[in-house]
Amino acid sequence: MTATDVQLQPKKKGLTRRQKRTLSRGVQYVVFVAAVIAFAVAADWDRLRNQFAQKAIAEQMFPEVITLALKNTVLYTLSGFAVGLALGMVIALMRLSSVGPYRWLAGVYIEIFRGLPALLIFIFIGVAVPLAFPGTEIPGGTYGKVALALGLVAAAYMAETIRAGIQAVPKGQMEAARSLGFSPARAMVSIIIPQAFRIILPPLTNELVLLFKDSSLVLFLGVTLEERELSKFGRDLASQTANSTPILVAGLCYLLVTIPLGFVVRRMEAKAQEAVK
């Protein structure tokens, strides 16, 4: 065989990178569909329906599941978010301060409350504080305790988010404000922080979703019937009826809030990316 014959032979070509990705994606879809079909065939739907989808039990939950449980959950979440946002702002500014002790205190707070489980914070507020300060009552009763517990947890995360947002604002903004006669504090409040919040609005909204779910820990504070949130409300009815339908309904009520909030977060992130482009 001559060199010319070798050159005339067609070269063997393998799959391109795009074809490999397409093939890999197709295999993943097939595996996923097969797993879903296997689950649907193997599951005992009658037992699941009897345990989680009793229409009569679900009807008994209304309207209290909305007017009482969901309302309390929203109130707990919003109050905790407000406390966390205010405290997080203070801690973020301390973290950025030129004063060493402020930075050290803010760092210690963030590491502690970001590392501890939220459950321990609730137990601390509900048990340790009354033991340490006998006769002392947190203003607002259960609502005040939940707002403080959720706020302490959220502040650690929000502080880092706010700090990152402030540092993302171009330094020229502060320099321009100072050249116009603004003091550092006024420039921070009037110029830097508003721009930072436009940057960090999506992650802050995501934090609101997380707080909405963490509000279920309120049951460790010992709430009354009128102070129950969705998880406590569903668990109490599940115990009374010996059925898990109330828990499923409570979970669906969580989704009524978290899914729209998640959609809002995605829309804000998309708009933020478009603004950058």
Looking at this protein, list some descriptive labels.
277 residues, ABC transporter permease, 12 helices, mainly alpha, 80% helix, MetI-like fold, MetI-like, transmembrane, flat, amino-acid transport
Description:
The chain is built from 12 helices and no strands. With 277 residues, the protein is mainly alpha-helical. The chain has one domain: MetI-like fold (Orthogonal Bundle), CATH 1.10.3720. The protein is flat, with a radius of gyration of 27 Å. It is found in: Cell membrane. Belongs to the binding-protein-dependent transport system permease family. HisMQ subfamily. InterPro entries: AA_ABC_transptr_permease_3TM, ArtM/GltK/GlnP/TcyL/YhdX-like, MetI-like, MetI-like_sf. Pfam families: BPD_transp_1 (PF00528).
CATH class: Mainly Alpha
Choose one word for the global shape: flat
Which structural category do the helix and sheet elements fall into?
mainly alpha
Number of strands: 0
User: How many domain units?
Assistant: 1
Unreliable sequence segments: none
Overall pLDDT, averaged? Answer: 85
As an assembly, this protein is single chain
Q: State the distance separating the first and last CA atoms.
A: 58 Å
**Main sheet overview:** none
| CATH-defined architecture | Orthogonal Bundle
Helix content: over 70%
Q: Write the element-wise H/E pattern from the N-terminal end onward.
A: HHHHHHHHHHHH
Fold-level CATH name: MetI-like fold
Q: Count of helices?
A: 12
Task: Report the β-strand fraction as a percent range.
Answer: under 5%
Backbone CA Rg = 27 Å
Query: What's the CATH H-level superfamily name?
Result: MetI-like
